[in-house]
Structures are given as structure tokens and as C-alpha cells.
Amino acid sequence: MCLTSRGAEIASLPTSIGAAHCSGRRHFSHSIRIQDGSGMKLAIIGLGRMGANMARRLSRGGITVVAHNRSRDPIDELVRDEDNVVPAYTEAQVLESLDGPRVIWLMLPAGEVTRAAIERLLPQLQ
């Protein structure tokens, strides 16, 4: 675990997925390699181009991805195409599909959409 130049913590993820790796005091690169993602599970909310591609990379790395989007088609496509994807058609299903500690990755547009999602989800994570 280390800090980025903006103070955010970077955690190791169990596959080569383009995660961050600290080098020096405040710089990081985008190329760590970690062993195996089996047993890890997280949710991705927002399956646009970036969210869907990240879900695919995580899934192919052995991480179980709980996939949620406001429309069903991107969820169904991921479930059809990838082995380690669990569909979640509602935010309640996202929460039910995750054991503690729950990891939810928001891939939503910056601004009010993201703030609203955090405000809905955060009380249910505590």
C-alpha cells in the first residue's frame, strides 16, 4: 500500500490489470504484476466503454465481477461473454452479491451522477 501524489491509497490487485505501483515518494507507474485473482470479488457500477472493459480485464484475471448498469444490455453482454461476471440489475442486488468487506468501483461520469450513487450506497456499506 502506498500513496499517490494526491494522497490516495493504492492497493495491490491480484492480476496484471494496469493497477498502480509506487516508485519513489509520489510517482507511480501503471504496470504491476500480481499473482492470482481467485477468491477476489468486487462490483463495477457503470458499464460504459471504460467500465465494461475494466470488468472484462478483471474477470479474465480471475476476479469475480458483480456487474451493474442502469440498462440491462451491457450487463447481459458481459455475463454472456465472460466467465467471472455476476449480473446485478439493481443496486440492492449489487449489495446482496458482495460479502464483506464490500468493494464497489464506480465508473460513472464525474459530478452529480457519481455523488448521488455514493450517497445512496455509502449508508448501506457501513
Detailed description of the structure:
The chain has 126 residues and is an alpha/beta fold. It has 2 domains: 1-35, no CATH class; 41-125, NAD(P)-binding Rossmann-like Domain (Rossmann fold, 3-Layer(aba) Sandwich). Helices cover 34% and strands 21% of the residues. Strands 7-6-5-8 form a 4-stranded parallel β-sheet, sandwiched between helices. Helix 1 links the parallel strand 5 and strand 6 (64-68). Mean pLDDT is 80; it is low at 1-34.
Summarize the structure in short:
The protein has 126 residues and is α/β, with parallel strands linked by helices.
Q: What is the H/E string?
A: EEEEEHEHEHEH
Largest sheet: 4 strands, parallel
**How would you classify the helix and strand content by structural class?**
alpha/beta
- This entry's quaternary arrangement is single chain
How much of the sequence is in beta strands?
Answer: 15-25%
Instruction: Detail the poorly predicted runs.
Output: 1-34
From the N-terminal CA to the C-terminal CA, the straight-line distance is: 23 Å
- Name the average pLDDT: 80
| Structural domain tally | 2
- Radius of gyration (CA) equals 15 Å
What structural keywords apply?
two-stranded antiparallel ribbon, Rossmann fold, alpha/beta, 126 residues, 34% helix, globular, 4-stranded parallel β-sheet, 8 strands, disordered N terminus
